[in-house]
Amino acid sequence: MNPEMQKKIDKVLKAIKDPINLLSLLDMNFIKKVSYSESEKRMLVYTKEEACRRSGNRCERCLGCCWGWAAVKIRTELAERAVKDLQAAFSDLRVELV
Asked: DSSP state, 62?
């Protein structure tokens, strides 16, 4: 990835803060990897933390513990925010959470 693209991605991730510890996604190493294909006009965002792919719904793995569900909900919201903000910054690419 070229340095200018990396700086732009880092700037977006630095601006998104966890509501509990107030650290940025970049500082927390929340995002494991961001890759993109120029030819496909596509950016893929990989998180280190588990994020529920069912936006707004409780899935089976979340039902056992309220705190577990709350943590997954926050991680999911952060991941969705990262995708939304990266999409805004890179409007020529399709950004997806993997």
From this structure: G
The larger pLDDT score, comparing residue 74 to residue 96, is at: 96
Question: Would you list the domain boundaries of the chain?
Answer: 3-97
For the entire predicted model, the pTM comes to: 0.79
25 within 8 A of 47, measured Cβ to Cβ:
no
> What CATH code is assigned to 3-97?
3.30.300
DSSP class of residue 17 equals B
Q: How far apart are CA 45 and CA 31, in angstroms?
A: 7
For residue 20, give both structure tokens. Answer: 């509990």
pLDDT, greater one: 61 or 47: 47
